[in-house]
Each structure stands twice: as structure tokens, then as C-alpha cells.
């Protein structure tokens, strides 16, 4: 579904964006039916749900852009999408930005990690020199067809190089023209407050990642807004709940040999039918069956 420019308009209006993480069409359809301003396609979620592997640079551009296209076409909310490091060198970055934009993504997130990258809430991440990331931002801005396609520049430098360097990089990303700046995995509420305060006047919107049980504390969105942030993503909220529910349900089946008295909240078959679009299929079949009968 086309929602071109909608995310940019929402941010320019001053509304704070809370975006739940989605990773497949079940999660995307469920989230899309709720009044969120945007959805966030998580690289961790796609790596795990689609390939069954760690978010450690193993998922490819083709994997990610294909899943982004499915989600963008099958939902009505603006889609923010993880693009790791851009999947290679500067030519890859250009190809990635153009591919994501053509797929219907409205904001693409790229980071300054050394390849192969790792999840931002794990140890062992290394970053490229600042000038290398600034060149990547330059290429990303040049590659997009429309400035409605927002470029999110993320730094993973906090963990290995410290908060001062992470904020320095964030300011440099904004000066280079990034639409949105993202300092990954601050380690306290005080660090979030400092990041928001120091980047709020950078000319870029400021982005926060909320990962319960990760390296960062969870800060209420109202507080993040007060501190100068504009977007908060919750990449793990759906996959964490879904995998826990699956584990619980399958264990019940193993232990009891049936699904009777299962205590996990579950959709009925009618709810699942509605979610995946069976009512539209039945209406289509009914309409064309009637046309056939009339013709005969």
C-alpha cells in the first residue's frame, strides 16, 4: 500500500512515533490493525524468523528487501526498515537505498559497524572510521529518488568507544545530512537524557531503541519525547511475546497430548481467517460464482 511521505509528515507535525517491531506477515498484520504511527522491520527478527540464524551479518540484502516489500505491500502504515551496514561498500549502499525505496520503505536504517555486523545489544561490535560512515551517508542521500525516503544513521560506538564518541558521531551524521540520528545501546537513563539533549538541536530527528533485557533500560516514550527524542522502536516486543507463547503452547501439547485447557491467549480460527484476508476471498468467490450462474 502506498503511504509515500507519510512518516516524514508525521515527524514534521511533532507527533512522537512509537513503532513496534514486525518480522513476518502475521506480526505485521496484527500491528497494522492498531493505531501505531509506523512499523519497524527488525533485522534480528527477520534473521531469526526467516533464516533461523543470529543477527550477525548472515541475512542478505535480498532476504531483507524481499521481506520489506512483503510487509510494505501488505500493510498501510509507514515502514521503517533495518538495513544493517548497507550490505557492503558504497555501491552496495546505493543499491540498498534504491531497492528499499522501491519496495515501499519510508526510512532506512544503516549503521557504522564493521562487517560482518552484530546485533546492537551484543558484545564485540566494532565500528568503521567516522569518515567512512559520513561517505556512506553522502551516498545514501544521493541514491534516494525522493527526500521523503528518510535516512537513519546509527552509531554502535557507545559500547567500545564510549558515550562522548557516540554523541560526536551522532552530531557529525546530522551535519552530513542524515534525516534521523540513532545512538545504539546507551547504558542508563542518564545517557538517554544526555543523548536527547545534545542531539535535539542537531537538525536531525532523534531515534531511540527500546529492548527490554538488552543493554539499555526501557524509558517511557513520554520521557523520551521530553528529552528530545522523536521516534522509539520496540523491535523485540512482538518476537519475544510470540516465541514465549509458542513455547508455552507446544509444551502444553507435549505434556497433555491435546490443546484442551491451554492457558495461552490464542486467536480463534475466525480471527485468523479475518487476519489473513479470507473474508475478501469468500466475497470474491461469491461475486464471480454469481456472475457465472447469471451467464449460464
TrEMBL record:
Keyword Cytoplasm: no
An example molecular function term from Gene Ontology annotations: 2,3-dimethylmalate lyase activity
Top-rank taxon: Bacteria
Plastid recorded as keyword: no
Known EC number: 4.1.3.32
UniProt-listed CDD domains: ICL_PEPM
Enzyme class: lyase
Keyword terms: Lyase
UniProt-listed InterPro entries: ICL/PEPM, Pyrv/PenolPyrv_kinase-like_dom, Pyrv_kinase-like_dom_sf
PANTHER family recorded: CARBOXYVINYL-CARBOXYPHOSPHONATE PHOSPHORYLMUTASE, CHLOROPLASTIC, PHOSPHOENOLPYRUVATE CARBOXYLASE
Record protein name field: 2,3-dimethylmalate lyase
Amino acid at each position: 500500500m502506498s503511504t509515500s511521505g507519510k512518516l516524514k509528515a508525521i515527524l514534521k507535525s511533532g507527533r512522537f512515533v512509537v513503532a513496534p517491531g514486525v518480522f513476518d506477515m502475521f506480526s505485521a498484520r496484527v500491528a497494522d490493525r492498531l493505531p501505531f504511527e509506523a512499523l519497524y522491520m527488525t533485522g534480528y527478527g527477520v534473521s531469526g524468523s526467516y533464516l533461523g540464524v543470529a543477527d550477525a551479518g548472515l541475512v542478505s540484502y535480498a532476504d531483507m528487501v524481499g521481506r520489506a516489500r512483503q510487509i510494505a505491500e501488505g500493510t498501510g502504515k509507514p515502514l521503517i526498515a533495518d538495513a544493517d551496514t548497507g550490505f557492503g561498500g558504497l555501491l552496495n549502499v546505493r543499491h540498498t537505498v534504491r531497492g528499499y525505496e522501491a519496495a515501499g520503505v519510508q526510512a532506512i536504517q544503516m549503521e557504522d559497524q564493521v562487517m560482518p555486523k552484530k546485533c546492537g545489544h551484543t558484545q564485540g561490535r566494532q565500528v568503521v572510521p567516522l569518515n567512512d560512515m559520513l561517505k556512506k551517508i553522502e551516498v545514501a542521500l544521493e541514491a534516494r529518488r525522493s527526500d521523503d525516503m528518510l535516512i537513519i544513521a546509527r552509531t554502535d560506538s557507545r559500547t567500545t568507544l564510549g558515550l562522548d564518541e557516540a554523541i560526536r558521531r551522532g552530531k557529525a551524521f546530522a551535519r552530513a545530512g542524515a534525516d534521523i540520528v540513532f545512538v545504539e545501546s546507551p547504558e542508563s537513563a542518564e545517557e538517554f537524557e544526555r543523548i536527547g539533549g545534545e542531539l535535539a538541536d542537531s537538525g536531525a530527528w532523534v531515534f531511540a531503541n527500546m529492548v527490554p533485557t538488552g543493554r539499555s533500560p526501557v524509558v517511557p516514550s513520554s520521557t523520551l519525547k521530553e528529552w528530545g527524542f522523536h521516534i522509539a522502536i520496540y523491535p523485540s516486543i512482538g518476537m519475544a511475546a510470540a516465541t514465549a507463547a509458542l513455547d508455552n503452547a507446544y509444551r502444553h501439547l507435549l505434556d497433555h497430548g491435546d490443546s484442551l485447557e491451554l492457558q495461552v491467549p490464542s486467536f480463534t480460527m475466525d480471527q485468523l481467517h479475518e487476519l489473513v484476508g479470507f473474508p475478501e476471498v469468500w466475497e470474491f468467490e461469491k461475486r464471480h460464482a454469481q456472475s457465472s450462474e447469471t451467464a449460464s
